[in-house]
UniProtKB/TrEMBL annotation:
List of residues binding GTP: 233-238, 252-258, 277-280
Gene name as annotated: mnmE
Provenance organism: Youngiibacter fragilis 232.1
Domain of life: Bacteria
Enzyme nomenclature, EC number: 3.6.-.-
Pfam families per UniProt: MMR_HSR1, MnmE_helical, TrmE_N
Binding site for Mg(2+): 237, 258
Locations listed in the record: Cytoplasm
Entry protein name: tRNA modification GTPase MnmE
Subunit structure: Homodimer. Heterotetramer of two MnmE and two MnmG subunits.
Length: 456
């Protein structure tokens, strides 16, 4: 019953602001608010019509003392965010007012909402599926317009619709097999096997097409982790400052100035980038600098992309080659920095074949760098608003569904009994259901919503 009692929470961040919102959801939401909300026109809140805004004051139930001037909105079930009765109280911003109003709501019988509990109720009440619910947190966490549009596409059910269509086809295949197995005298097994094989191949192609979007989708959702690497004093921190268009890192002529890792978010033409400036990698006797170098090496192994910087005014040396060797299995772009200097060197090396000439001080070459990143990860164009697989949980479920379909096709090739094939098809259907929440265990559903913020 805990999932269906009346809950309440402050839905806006704490601190000074223009307004704050307290959200209440459940069968008793309207009755609870009616005890502490006095309309300006002396009307009774229990009698007001839904989907309208009402002006008045929240008062203490016992003393009648006015707490704040508010606007209250009532959304009648099932036409609300949670598909339950929902009341939203909009008060002045600030910690004290919103906290006092919430206290009065809780004293009248509501309980504090847990993380993501409003969205969880929308899921439990069938208003949205699990993939759409997860898109809500992606909308909140989105760092660029592109990531926002992609999350919105998922929240509107575009991925869910595709998954549902695939599951319906699998279900029809299972029903077809069941009829064939139940009526062996009709001698339909050979024809059924051929049709099942054709359908399974089509579905497998659809799933693998979805999986191909997972790389781009994850970057749009979580950001492209980009590490700026190189030996000391090649211009890594200057590049960070230029890309951010602000002085975020200290820049000096002294090698080893950067001792710790600096991380910042950057909107690179719609791509959310986690830009990581690292300490220059070299052998050093300085204990603090050595710790920074060790962290830099660790960040290289975690990066989606490495921007390997070379100083155009100095020859490539042993330290540069050692860093390059660490990038053998990484995706990287070589940047020849300090091209603005008169004493830049002209030298030839295989690593420079695709290098980009840049100047971290005046921004030369940054446009080409952005183009190269988009070409490397997005085939040149970042497509917004299209559904894609951006969630690791969804990707894992698709991979397992794909593997089960492949097992079914192997069984068909080996002329195994159709009821054996149906086991693999059922497994694929079940794995896909984990994406929308139809076949996911309750404890895993609770874990997913526990990552949401309170009040959403």
């Amino acid at each position: 019953m805990r999932d269906f009692d009346t809950i309440a929470a402050i839905a806006t961040p704490p601190g000074e602001s223009g307004v704050a919102m307290i959200k209440i959801s459940g069968n008793d939401a309207k009755a609870i608010v009616s005890e502490i909300f006095k309309l300006k026109n002396n009307d009774v809140f229990l009698n007001i019509r839904p989907w309208k805004m009402h002006y008045g004051h929240i008062v203490e139930y016992d003393s009648g003392e006015i707490i704040d001037e508010v606007v209250v909105s009532y959304f009648k079930a099932p036409k609300s965010y949670t598909a339950e009765d929902v009341v939203e109280i909009t008060s002045h911003g600030g910690y004290t007012s919103s906290r006092r109003i919430l206290d009065q709501v809780l004293l009248r019988g509501a309980r504090p909402a847990g993380p993501g509990e409003f969205t969880k109720r929308a899921f439990l009440n069938g208003r949205i599926d699990l993939a759409q619910a997860e898109a809500v947190i992606d909308i909140i966490n989105s760092k660029t317009d592109q990531s926002m549009k992609t999350a919105m596409a998922q929240s509107q059910g575009r991925l869910s619709k595709e998954i549902t269509n695939i599951r319906e086809r699998l279900l029809n295949m299972l029903a077809f097999i069941e009829v064939t197995v139940d009526f062996p005298e009709d001698d339909l097994e050979s024809a059924t096997a051929e049709k099942v094989k054709c359908d399974a191949e089509e579905i497998l192609h659809k799933i693998e097409t979805l999986l191909k979007t997972s790389g781009e989708g994850k970057i749009i959702r979580d950001g492209l982790r980009t590490v700026i690497a190189g030996k000391p004093n090649v211009g890594k921190s200057s590049l960070l400052n230029t890309l951010l268009m602000e002085t975020r890192a200290i820049v000096t002529d002294v090698p080893g100035t950067t001792r710790d890792v600096i991380e910042e978010y950057l909107n690179l033409d719609g791509i959310p980038v986690i830009l990581v400036d690292t300490a220059g990698i070299r052998d050093t006797e300085d204990i603090v600098e050595r710790i920074g170098v060790d962290i830099s090496k660790q960040k290289l192994s975690e990066a989606d992309l490495v921007l390997f910087m070379l100083d155009r005014s100095r020859p490539i040396d042993k330290e540069d080659i050692e860093i390059l060797n660490r990038l053998e299995y990484a995706r990287y772009i070589v940047l020849l920095n300090k091209t603005d200097l008169d004493d830049r060197l002209e030298y030839d090396h295989p690593v420079l074949a695709d290098a980009i000439q840049v100047s971290a001080t005046n921004g030369y070459g940054i446009t080409e760098l952005k183009r190269r990143i988009k070409e490397m990860f997005f085939a040149g164009t970042v497509k917004a608003g299209e559904y894609s697989v951006s969630n690791d949980r969804h990707k894992e479920a698709l991979i397992r569904a794909s593997e089960s379909l492949k097992d079914a096709l192997v069984a068909l090739e080996e002329n195994m009994q159709l009821d054996v094939v149906s086991i693999d098809l059922s497994a694929s259907w079940s794995y896909l259901g984990e994406i929308t929440g139809d076949t996911l265990q309750e404890d895993l559903i609770d874990k997913i919503f526990s990552d949401f913020c309170v009040g959403k």
